[in-house]
Amino acid sequence: MLWFLVPFELFSNNQLPPSAKPSTPRVYVTRQVHFNAAHRLHNAAFDDAWNQKTYGHCNHPNWHGHNYVLEVTLAGPPDPNTGYLMDLGELNRMLQEQIVAKCDHRNLNMDVDFLQGIIPSSENLVIAFWNELARVLPPHLLHRVRLWETPRNMAEYLGETA
Ligand code: NI
Fold it and tell me: Is 58 known to be catalytic?
């Protein structure tokens, strides 16, 4: 049968297998937290000239600080009993415990156990934060981690690989 002679009814909604029919709605919820921290961007594998050229002000040897804004988004179907994807108060407690308590008013190069050996760029921080949160959140809920280093600079991670 030529493709243009296939009866239209074959494509009507009633013909779709169950797996192709609309399923449970997926919603996204976000919690925002803040922390203030110092850091320095410096790669010890390269000389000072390379670091100064690469990082500019962010390579200043005596550190500098940012007012970080962290946004964590969960995704999935609402629980039919609660109407929640997850209690955002509980998510907030996890963010405070796993991230804020360890990073706020700290030096990200020196003081944070899970950042040891990492150049604390926003890109590397969102990956590290994702990994910390994925350990404690229910499986498959974590959708996106966003970190605002300034009101104009933001990095985000969705758990994808390049
Ligand atoms: Ni900086």
Answer: yes
